[in-house]
Give the backbone structure.
Amino acid sequence: MNVLAAEVGHTSSSPLLITAALVGIAVVVVLITVLKVHPFLSLIIGSAVLGVIAGVAVKDIVASFTAGVGSTVGSVGLLIALGAMIGGLLTASGGADRVVTAIVDRVSPKALPWAMGGVAALIGIPLFFEIGVVLLIPIVLLVAHRSNQPVLRVGIPALAGLSVLHGFIPPHPGPLVAISSLGANLGLTLLFGLILAIPAVVLAGPVFGTLISKRLHVATPAALVGAGTGARETGTTGAGGGDGADRDLGDTGDAARHDTTVRRQPAFGATVATVLLPVVLMALGAIGELTLDDGTTLRSVSNILGTPVIALLIGVVVAMFTLGTAVGFGRQKISDTLGGSLPAIAGILLIVAAGGGFKQLLVDSGISGLIGDAAEGASLSPLLLGWLVAVGIRLATGSATVATITAAGIVAPLAAGLDSPTLALLALAVGAGSLFFSHVNDAGFWLVKEYFGMTVGETIKSWSVMETIISVVGLIGVLLLNLVV
């Protein structure tokens, strides 16, 4: 608990604190799902209601919420912005297309589901989920059409690759928020997340995609196939509902369009190396912490290069050359592309910031401590508790980001007694729970439904089940890793 927490007065009544938590969360849920209020405003109002019921003075509510916003933006916002810049250059330069075509053109029809899962996981590292969908799905549909493959056999693996990255791997907002809230080590979380991502992508992607494509026959949307890659400019964030807290990042069609003045595509190897560079640097930093002695030059260098902000900043600088200068972009075009990648993330930054304020009120009002004590008294594993809380909020709000923020705040008191590896696994357990069973209150549900031309029932049988598989496999993986680390 921070210094501010000691200065915040609140009721000592446990029933009233529990009521404040339930009502505060319920207000957020109702505002988002029923009244269709933007999650940013919903989290602010829910925080105020929570604080008032918990007996926190108005000035302390404002101070606590503001402190939570500031700390969250300071720790998470910069990383999201740098990741978005790499993603902007990746899409504008044609680098994503280069990776897709280079791999898909070299694999057999039987191996296409595995190739699409791998491609989606690779280019999804610096891209937000919705941008990845807008970018990849038209290509997936075109590949399915040309190879005469069932669209779900090729499409589900691509969606699984994107979704797993969204829930498990920094610099995506959900994992970053969980890491910040719990005080987990980013490098370790990244390493464990990559380990969990492999079985999650395999089982929810090629394995499930092959099975569901035999039972659910979905015709390839002719309009998107006919449009080719230009179909990226179409699509929807979901007319049917959903808050879009973790999906709707603005007009991603503009972000995904290729500039017609690009003279050549970036090299395949250079593109892959650029995308993986920040991940490799952060992973090396984590490995250095585990294997190198303190005070050695090599340990110091690995710590510096593995610092998330530095790793991503290096990635942006390298991308300016490999995905900018190398394809014929001038200095102004590179600057415009980097700047143009930022407006689309403004919404998610505000939501994450407000979620940080909500989390801080949970802590400062004494609610998180109360829940933590109850969990310890019930001998409930913090990993399972984090997953269950995130699942409940995900089902209620539809937003993986809101689920991650709130669940991490609730289980944060349990983090005090955990070692570094367990903290990283707790962050991943929360991330896994935040992906559980996407349904009609999730904007991602409608985005997938519209792109694939499916009915609501078909989307539940394919997309919703796929998300659930990822969530459950993630939990099982976290529990297994906890036995050996």
About this structure: The two ends are 26 Å apart (CA to CA). Residues 3-484 form one domain.
